[in-house]
Design brief:
Layout (H helix, E strand, L loop, with lengths): L1 E2 L3 H9 L4 E5 L6 E5 L3 H12 L7 H37 L6 H9 L1 H19 L1 H10 L9 H20 L2 H26 L18 H12 L15 H30 L11 H10 L1 H35 L17 H14 L4 H29 L13 H21 L2 H27 L15 E2 L2
Helix pairs in contact: 2-8, 2-10, 2-12, 3-9, 3-10, 4-5, 4-14, 5-12, 5-13, 5-14, 5-16, 6-12, 7-12, 7-13, 8-10, 8-12, 9-14, 11-12, 12-13, 14-15, 14-16
Length: about 475
């Protein structure tokens, strides 16, 4: 088998030269060079796409108690995170270009379903990103009560969104190194808290469980929200230095960092002080830090939590905006979305994603988590189908990294997460279910509208994606 360069691949090929990408800035008569993302920044970008630290896992203890919380993050990582990371490694290196999962699904199921994938995953990402300015202010409102509600809170959300959006505009290199600095700062206080807690640890507290009082919906949504989005990095693959080698390794290192980043603080918090499930909610790790280390450690945890939300915001916005750029490169969106700023960043994608964040920031924490989980599930089902179909129907396509299982094996690793998706969908509140289904149905209408606009030439479209043969051809 041999690659035939599609418009998107031709773009990717032009951009790779000794780890430096050369991007033509539309509307300007020159081109600019920008560094590709290397291993360490990529690991932390994945870390922030998925996790950002243990902030937000407290609800798992409230919902199910210490034992199920600890087991949940281990078991869920095995049945969900590992398969999703493996699929992302194979498909991301197979299609090393911006657009990621949109290109995967388009290759396997056709551009109509590729567009649906892009719509639900972009909307899910924007909904998810609307959470982080809210959480940032939630951690600060104990020190600044005025941020709890009203005009000061609204203004703060807008200002914070604008600042973080500007970071994305300045380029992935800055975003990557900001992610590293924020990641180190956010994880260090939990290591310190764990060391301080050692004399007070009582392992028997880890075994507390009461199945009769488990809030299964909150429990599963908390696990799902904290351990998904491994595929989000795929929309940035065209910006990665040597993705066939870098992406699989970065996913592995990030997986270890994420799981340990959850388990270690949970062991500390549930083992060092008596467990009162009712008080385990967002921000409770700061209270634990005060009990174990004093006000200074609590302040550090609060600062780390606030800054971690900044890291998650910029990482998520990078994926969302580059996804739109990738869709434009293969003709699914107007070429306006493929326009890059002088820093190599997708200008329109950033503006659209930021606008979505502002519009959705009024939702509550629980509604945001439930809605983005629901839409995310739709997208993951299509990814699993695309992964299996390409393996069975196109076994000889080049795969720089290949999940080490045959056809039966790849089907088997998709079954547990698919069953989990069905459970998450079934447990969703009716309000969230109705809103999410309506949003997904809107995508079914939106795609023909975009095609009509393309046919009428009301906007300029560049590139095309007709079928898998435009990606690969036999010699």
């Amino acid at each position: 088998m041999k690659h035939r360069t599609s418009p998107a691949r031709q773009s990717s090929a032009k951009m790779s030269d000794n780890n430096v990408g050369e991007y033509a800035v539309m509307g300007e008569g020159s081109s600019h060079k920008h560094n590709k993302v290397s291993m360490l920044p990529l690991v932390f970008l994945i870390f922030y796409e998925v996790s950002g630290g243990p902030f937000g896992v407290e609800d798992s203890v409230q919902a199910a108690g210490p034992l199920l919380a600890l087991l949940g993050f281990l078991v869920f990582a095995l049945i969900w995170s590992v398969p999703e990371a493996l699929i992302t490694a194979e498909m991301g290196t197979m299609f090393p270009e911006n657009g990621g999962y949109v290109v995967w699904v388009s290759s396997a199921l056709g551009p109509f379903w590729g567009f649906q994938q892009g719509w639900v995953k972009w909307l899910s990402g924007v909904i998810d990103n609307a959470l982080y300015p809210v959480l940032f202010l939630d951690y600060l409102k104990s020190a600044i009560p005025a941020l709890e509600s009203g005009l000061p809170r609204t203004i703060s959300v807008l200002v914070l969104t604008a600042i973080l959006t500007y970071l994305n505009y300045r380029g992935l290199t800055i975003v990557g190194w900001v992610a590293i600095l924020l990641g180190v700062f956010s994880l260090l206080p939990f290591i310190v808290m764990g060391l301080i807690s050692i004399p007070k640890i009582e392992p028997a507290r880890w075994l507390i469980v009461d199945l009769g009082t488990v809030n299964w919906s909150l429990y599963l949504n908390t696990l799902f929200w904290n351990l998904n989005y491994w595929d989000s990095i795929s929309t940035l693959t065209g910006e990665v230095e040597n993705p066939s080698r870098t992406l699989p390794k970065a996913l592995f290192y990030a997986l270890l960092m994420v799981v340990l980043g959850y388990i270690f603080p949970l062991l500390t918090g549930t083992g060092a002080i008596p467990v009162d499930r009712e008080v385990w909610s967002d921000g409770y790790f700061a209270d634990i830090a005060k009990i174990l280390g004093g006000v200074w450690l609590r302040t550090w945890i609060l600062a780390a939590a606030a800054l971690s939300n900044m890291g998650m915001f910029v990482a998520e916005m990078s994926s969302d905006s580059f996804q739109l750029l990738g869709m434009a490169e293969i003709g699914m969106l107007p070429s306006l979305f493929a326009k890059r700023s002088r820093y190599g960043t997708p200008l329109m994608g950033i503006l659209f994603s930021a606008s979505g964040v502002v519009l959705l920031s009024w939702l509550s924490f629980q509604e945001i988590v439930a809605a983005e989980n629901y839409l995310y599930c739709f997208g993951m089902i299509m990814e699993f189908i695309a992964f299996v179909k390409l393996r069975i129907q196109n076994p000889n396509l080049p795969r720089p990294y290949k999940v080490p299982f045959g056809n039966i094996g790849v089907i088997m690793i998709c079954i547990p997460p698919t069953m989990l998706i069905i459970v998450v969908l079934a447990l969703a509140p009716l309000k969230i279910m109705a809103i999410s289904v309506a949003a997904a149905v809107f995508g079914l209408v939106l795609q023909p509208c975009v095609e009509y606009i393309k046919k009428k030439k009301w906007y300029v479209f560049s590139g095309s994606f007709d079928n898998p043969d435009c990606q690969y051809a036999s010699v």
